[in-house]
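Allow me, if you will, to draw on your knowledge of protein folds for a short while. I have a record of one protein: its chain in single-letter code and its fold written as discrete structure tokens. The full record is reproduced below for your convenience:
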Amino acid sequence: MINFKQAIFMMALTLSFPSSSSSEMYIKDTSINQSSICHVEESFRAGSQCKDGEIMLFIPVSGIGAGRTSIVLSSLVCDFRFNIIRTSDALTCVFSTKRKNQWAEFSMETPK
């Protein structure tokens, strides 16, 4: 059985070694284009308006069904290695074409 001193020692040992947490790894990622924002008002146009690594900001023109639309859009175009921020009327994330093969299923435009 672990006594109190051993527990404190293990906690101190754990806290003294830096870990490579996921947030540290992503801060070093240079694939994110932070110089501009890709503003999208119609979800089906995100694929033709944004490029890989851009910050996508989705603010729908119509508030009808915006919650469901932003969930579907995020599942299709957001890079899940990074934070995805969603409110009742907006969505922002790092844009990705990793699931591009599924876009047609949801009537999304593709780049020309």
Remarks:
- Residues 1-26 have pLDDT under 50 and may be disordered.
- Residues 76 and 100 are 7 Å apart (CA to CA).
- The longest helix spans residues 4-16.
